[in-house]
Amino acid sequence: MDRFVFLTFDGLSRGAVYAAFALALVLIWRATRIVNFAQGAMAVATAYAGYSVSAATGSYWLGFGVAVLAGIVLGTVTERVVMRFVDHSSPLNEVVVALGLVLVIQGVLGMIYGNEFRPAAAPFSRDAFTVGGVALLSRFDLFVFAAVGAVVAALALLFTRTDTGLRMRASAFAPDVSRLLGVNVGGMLTLGWALAAAVGSLAGMLVLPTELGLHPNAMDIVFVSSFTAAVVGGLDSAVGSVVGGLVVGLLLSYVSGYLGATVAPIAVLVLLVVVLLGRPGGLFGRSAARAV
Amino acid sequence: MSGLVLDRIGVRFGGLVALDGVSLRVAPGRTVGVIGPNGAGKTTLFNVVCGFVSPTGGSLTLDGRPLRPRPHRLTRLGIARTLQGVGLFSGLTVLENVLVAAPATPGERAATHGVTAAAPGETAATPGKEVAPHGVTAAAPGETAATPGEEVAPHGVTAAAPGGKAGGRDRAMAALERCGVAERAGDLPGMLPYALRKRVALARALVSDPRILLLDEPAGGLSAREIDELRELIAGLSCAVLLVEHHMDLVMSVCDEILVLDFGRPVAHGTPDEIRADEAVADAYLGAAG
């Protein structure tokens, strides 16, 4: 029972990060119908920037802020300079361009920082509080929950309560009609990419201290898990991505806890296959209806 | 020259002449109809005004200034358009659909693009009253309990509300009320009958307080009774209207002047009575349509 409780909290903590990362994927998918396969690499790049600043200044939080800010900049640049000019006639074009970005970013990071793991410090202790001998949560876990909760709440407010959020949704639905109604669709797309990349950077900063550390490929496995989370929840559903993230986090935690860490990646793939067979649109996806 | 002026507009798609030497003036407050058989270039003409199609010849001016339309700047210039298909956002509620088009601050457009309310032809325009800038004076048809007095009230509220979100919401609701669909504000467009969806689309075009409203086949798919209601709604607008429509009775009854296109060329231009009497029109249009 102790073990179950511990694994549950650990899984929820990891799941929260997957949720944030999946949410970033969903943001871009909903706005542009692109799965941003470069998101992991972009998050690593901004984490390197953040930790470089932390190392130079001695302040973790300054580096944290720089990482998120770098996410906004990198997202903006990626949309304005690269993605805007990709031909949208075939969905494969965007995938190829995104994978190309991954290679470029990881190559550049390797040239600057080298291809070995560098330590990624956590701002809070990762030692779990124990209650009656049962290990529950660490301070860092609490920080993860608070940060992800704040991001989810902020995005929910943005999309449901503000005019900008409404215009972003409208641009995603029908760009041409939105233009006619006076919406700056290009600006909305850029904003969507900037927000998504910032959320991805945040997720990176939250997950890297729990992994082996900084490495150009450090987010690859996180990306796979988060992508699974987004698809399981339904790529069109923000709520689904959060639920999917928590489900994947719990699943990974239980499987590696009870069956062994080597089985965990297989469990993720099994989950993906089962959900896609049962509900191809994801758990929260709306089934496509044909208008008559 | 005030209003929207098209001077010898030409559009070619490769070797195909879509429009050739089309001139037209939409003066403030006037309702101008564009008719012609299918493929005559009516929608292309709209697309030129909206910036979706660049003319290969001729020029556009708005209030005497050269106009190079860009779709997302149109509403700021005071031009709004409805689409031939309804074009509502299926995932947004009726109210949200209208809110997308509601500018953040009511005075934005007027402030940047000169006088709108004092335009000639707007009979009801009295300074200081909210009715005039809002483009509509008459109560929306189909609204059972609406009296003109009640209709005016929400506009006053709108003007008093501080800019930004609350103001936008009020104005969106006022536009829906004007078009008689306010009670469906919380529904998704897919739940509405076609005729009501067209009203929502009209409300969405009206919410930006256009000086010039472009209506692309507003009567398409409507019943005779619904067309009568639409007629009253259009007749009650104080803004200028450019109307593309196949429904002859509607065009003849609401338009001050009519331009007839055939294969992209202007065939006739005049008042409804002149157009009715014009033989070239009968040949080109009525003859072709049977």
Automatic annotation (TrEMBL), chain A:
Transmembrane segments: 12-29, 36-54, 60-83, 95-114, 134-159, 180-207, 227-251, 258-277
Topology term for the membrane: Multi-pass membrane protein
Location(s), subcellular: Cell membrane
UniProt cross-references to InterPro entries, sorted A to Z: ABC_transp_permease, BCAA_transport_permease
Alphabetical GO biological process terms: amino acid transport
A GO MF label: transmembrane transporter activity
Superkingdom, taxonomy of origin: Bacteria
Gene Ontology CC terms, in alphabetical order: plasma membrane
Key words of the record: Amino-acid transport, Cell membrane, Membrane, Transmembrane, Transmembrane helix, Transport
UniProt signal peptide: none
Keyword Transmembrane helix: yes
Family (UniProt): Belongs to the binding-protein-dependent transport system permease family. LivHM subfamily.
The protein's name: Amino acid/amide ABC transporter membrane protein 1 (HAAT family)
Organism: Pseudosporangium ferrugineum
Lineage of source species: Bacteria, Bacillati, Actinomycetota, Actinomycetes, Micromonosporales
TrEMBL record, chain B:
Start and end residues of each ABC transporter domain: 4-288
Annotated keywords: ATP-binding, Nucleotide-binding, Transport
Name of the protein: Amino acid/amide ABC transporter ATP-binding protein 1 (HAAT family)
GO molecular function, a single term: ATP binding
Claim: Transport is one of the keywords in the record: yes
Domain of life of the native organism: Bacteria
Matching InterPro entries: AAA+_ATPase, ABC_AA/LPS_Transport, ABC_transporter-like_ATP-bd, BCA_ABC_TP_C, P-loop_NTPase
GO CC, alphabetical: plasma membrane
Organism: Pseudosporangium ferrugineum
Pfam family, one: ABC_tran
Record flagged with keyword Ribonucleoprotein: no
Ranges that cross the membrane: none
